[in-house]
Amino acid sequence: MGNRGMEDLIPLVNRLQDAFSSIGQACNLDLPQIAVVGGQSAGKSSVLENFVGRDFLPRGSGIVTRRPLVLQLISANAEWAEFLHCKGKKFTDFDEVRQEIEGETDRVTGANKGISPIPINLRVYSPHVLNLTLIDLPGITKVPVGDQPADIEQQIRDMIMQFISRESCLILAVTPANTDLANSDALKLAKDVDPQGKAKTPKIDERIDRYIGVVNRSQKDIEGKKDIKAALEAERKFFLSHPSYRHMAEKMGTPRLQQVLNQQLTNHIRDTLPAFRSKLQAQLLALDKEAEEYRGYRPDDPSRKTKQLLQMVQQFSVDFEKRIEGSGDQVDTVELSGGAKINRVFHERFPFELVKMECDEKEMRREISYAIKNIHGIRTGLFTPDMAFEAIVKKQVVKLKEPCIKCVDMVIQELINTVRQCSNKLECFPRLREETERIVTSHIRDRESRAKEQVLLLIDLQLSYINTNHEDFIGFASAQQRSSQTNKSQSSAGNQVIRKGWLTINNISIIKGGAKEYWFVLTAESLSWFKDDEEKEKKYMLPLDNLKVRDVEKSFMSSKHIFSIFNTESRNVYKDNRTLELACDSQDDVDSWKSSLLRAGVYPEKTITSETTTATDNFSMDPQLERKVETIRNLVDSYMAIVNKCIRDLIPKTIMHLMINNVKDFINAELLACLYSAGDQNALMDESQEQAQRRDEVLRTHQALKEALAIIGDISTSTITTPMPPPVDSSWVGGAAGGRRSPPPSPTAPRRMSSGQRPAPRGAPPPPNRPGPLGPFNNSADSPQAPSRPNRSSS
């Protein structure tokens, strides 16, 4: 009733929606919203009711629609309505719907003409509608009344613009017939949204006029309960009989308006279908392989379980090896993991931990002097004792146990993380995943004890024999020249670049611009930073002499990880700052920079207890003892350099052999046997409930996609055109007043008719004095036009 032109689309669109509803998805054809816009009491609600076919909107004088009404029409077998704020309550009497709209409006805005942008959401289920959205918006008013604010006009305008600015909104601009189109508020709003008329695309039939006259029910008709069907009959009689409109009667009236909207909706659906079809075809193609695997799938088939178990274990083994050895696929682009993380542990974290174990210079010299004195005992020694050298060396070697064990722990943690990452592909089979992780992790823990034993054995080997005949050991004769040789070797390194990267200087005052990010370049002699990575504008260069690194506690207000550089002689490091605080995005980046600074000779700060500080401050040496201490110090440095070089080489090799390679071999050769011996292999392959649901969903979705593509084929061929009403015979117009005969309208002449225009039966304009459609439909080149915008997003 009132929208018969759309009923041809209803069965096909509903079939498409039903196909998607069966799999719990929405059919997104992006049907446009139809927003009715116009001045106060222009007849917007009547146009909307005619379109819906129901009399259900509030009526009265002044501003009646004071909140947007978002009306969702849903095709159904029965007819009822429900509100979003009254979920579960069905309204079958549409007089009650009107009362609920009025009551809900007053609840938010009050009963004294106040307005609110909060919409009322109403759903109408009917067998006579197509699924789409209609919006009844407040009428444009200029004078505030009641509780309305002084800027009521701007508020209503902003409210309307929120809706009609949307790409998929179709604007019905309603203008009374006794109003000049040039002064139409509705058309002005439409022009503001689409000033060039670009939203009107060639997809709309050029023969369709953009201005259409309709006759709404008068207030007397409404109060007299005149139904919409009778009103439509009266409307058609008016256009056929009135001298000003009878020659264009087939282009006027509510049915024509509905026909135009139906044509645009039809075209919109047709224009949307190619992209929609492509999307469905892509989804279907993506599911083809998986659906083929699931078709005929028997979860309890023992042979299938055995085969799938073999495939899963093999895939797990391949994935683990790829993550450790590196490969082109399965690349983590977010953070280091697997083999890359272990590589960083071997070559950055482990060397850094070794250096952290080294004694502070003053502390080392104090220990050497005490060792020399204690070895000589009550006698005054004439020669530098060998035993002092060995005692200090062994003490330093023992300190290496902690960083070596820590290196093993870090590698183990990364191996376990890698196992968990690889087991993600087993999540379809929870028991298999659980058993796989348990077996492999248990093996890693077993190898952990073996690896740590071997690491400690390597340290014990270094303690068992101090080889002073090593080719790299400087010996007692050359110990005095060690310092000068070291200085020469450092200067020969020159400006060798050790590291480059972005760092944030964290302790710049807000007055001077606050924390800033710079491009840093670390060489063997200096730390420089530039404005950017082009390295053209150098901001500062900091020599590395007497610098050390200190940890800085992370602030709970900052996401950055911070470390600082300071001068051991209490001098300013950077301008007026005693320290230079540098910030990174992660702790790994901090550790990496500290390791690079270590290579450049910038060592971490030592934590010195109060007892050590007191002993150091009270310590003094005579010149003879100082020479002996210097000799032992150089010897210890030389020998520990040999030990550190050996340890840095052997520990990664030991871990690689006893841990990493062993775990890879275990997964490849023994994991399957362990899984078989762990219990019933059929139980291991019991799929999860989520996997069963996934399989059913894939099959249903695949079938729904096939059905939808078939239905789309029907829609694309069934909605190409909309039947036009039979032409009206206007030959009798020649007998009009004055004997003048109006020429029939040219099919190509650009006639404009007001969209939603409302000529009143009693207030019709007089017949024109010259042929042609004049009067309120005066064809002026400057007259504003209402842009029809069904699918701006797709044009």
Task: Give a written overview of the molecule.
- Helix content is 47%, strand content 10%.
- The protein has 795 residues and is an alpha/beta fold.
- It has three domains: 31-194 and 214-278, P-loop containing nucleotide triphosphate hydrolases (Rossmann fold); 318-483 and 622-685, Dynamin, middle domain (Four Helix Bundle (Hemerythrin (Met), subunit A)), CATH 1.20.120.1240; 497-604, Pleckstrin-homology domain (PH domain)/Phosphotyrosine-binding domain (PTB) (PH-domain like, Roll).
- The strands form two sheets. Strands 10-9-8-7-13-12-11-14 form an eight-stranded mixed beta sheet.
- The model is unreliable at 1-7, 198-208, 486-493, 609-617, 717-726 and 732-795 (pLDDT under 50).
- This is Interferon-induced GTP-binding protein Mx.
- Its main location: cytoplasm.
- GO terms for molecular function: GTP binding; GTPase activity; microtubule binding.
- Residues 496-602 form the PH domain.
Number of helical segments? 22
CATH class of the largest domain: Mainly Alpha
Strand order of the largest sheet: 10-9-8-7-13-12-11-14
Helix/strand/pairing category: alpha/beta
CATH superfamily of the largest domain: Dynamin, middle domain
* Shape-level CATH architecture of the largest domain: Up-down Bundle
Output the radius of gyration. Answer: 43 Å
Specify the helix fraction band: 40-55%
Largest sheet: 8 strands, mixed
Total DSSP E strands: 14
Net shape: elongated
Q: What ranges have pLDDT less than 50 throughout 5 or more consecutive residues?
A: 1-7, 198-208, 486-493, 609-617, 717-726, 732-795
Total domains? 3
Indicate the CATH topology of the largest domain.
Four Helix Bundle (Hemerythrin (Met), subunit A)
Give the overall average pLDDT: 74
| Residue share in β-strands | 5-15%
**What's the N-to-C terminus distance?**
32 Å
GO molecular function, one term: GTP binding
Protein name: Interferon-induced GTP-binding protein Mx
Keywords: Cytoplasm, Endocytosis, GTP-binding, Hydrolase, Microtubule, Motor protein, Nucleotide-binding
Family: Belongs to the TRAFAC class dynamin-like GTPase superfamily. Dynamin/Fzo/YdjA family.
